[in-house]
UniProtKB/TrEMBL annotation:
One annotated GO biological process: gamma-aminobutyric acid catabolic process
Superkingdom per UniProt: Bacteria
InterPro entries (alphabetical): Ald_DH/histidinol_DH (IPR016161), Ald_DH_C (IPR016163), Ald_DH_N (IPR016162), Aldehyde_DH_dom (IPR015590), Aldehyde_DH_Superfamily (IPR050740)
Keyword Metal-binding (UniProt): no
Gene3D superfamilies per UniProt: Aldehyde Dehydrogenase, Chain A, domain 1 (3.40.605.10), Aldehyde Dehydrogenase, Chain A, domain 2 (3.40.309.10)
Entry EC no(s): 1.2.1.16
Protein name (record): Succinate-semialdehyde dehydrogenase (NADP(+))
GO molecular function, one term: succinate-semialdehyde dehydrogenase (NAD+) activity
Pfam families: Aldedh
Length: 121
């Protein structure tokens, strides 16, 4: 776009479950839209990948917010927002998207050695 190595934000409609974008970790301004029948189906679709860095969804019902957020197999979940990264949030994924966290108080844990002491008296 515009002669650079970037491309404009793109929406893909009616994407089939077999599309690469449904299985791969896409970094870019791409929003694939999938059809689904119910909450269980969309959670299954979202989790049907080896990756798990971040996921996003919108909901009004607070019980649905917690139910869906807990069911999603991702290290970070944006609920009613697309801006989930900040300096105090633990950044990192699950599955093939990484192990451990960067930032926040949890980011230091990968650099610490834990020692167990047991003193008999």
């Amino acid at each position: 776009a515009n002669g650079g190595s970037y491309f404009e934000p793109t929406i893909l409609a009616d994407v089939p479950r077999s599309a690469k974008v449904s299985k791969e970790e896409t970094f870019g301004p791409l929003a694939p839209l999938f059809r689904f029948k119910d909450e269980a189906e969309v959670i299954e679709l979202a989790n049907d990948t080896e990756f798990g860095l971040a996921s996003y969804f919108y909901a009004r019902d607070l019980s649905r917010v917690f139910r869906v957020a807990e069911a999603l197999e991702y290290g970070m979940v944006g609920i009613n927002t697309g801006l989930i990264s900040n300096e105090v949030a633990p950044f990192g994924g699950v599955k093939a998207s990484g192990l451990g966290r960067e930032g926040s108080k949890y980011g230091i844990e990968d650099y610490l050695e834990i020692k167990y002491l047991c003193l008999g008296i």
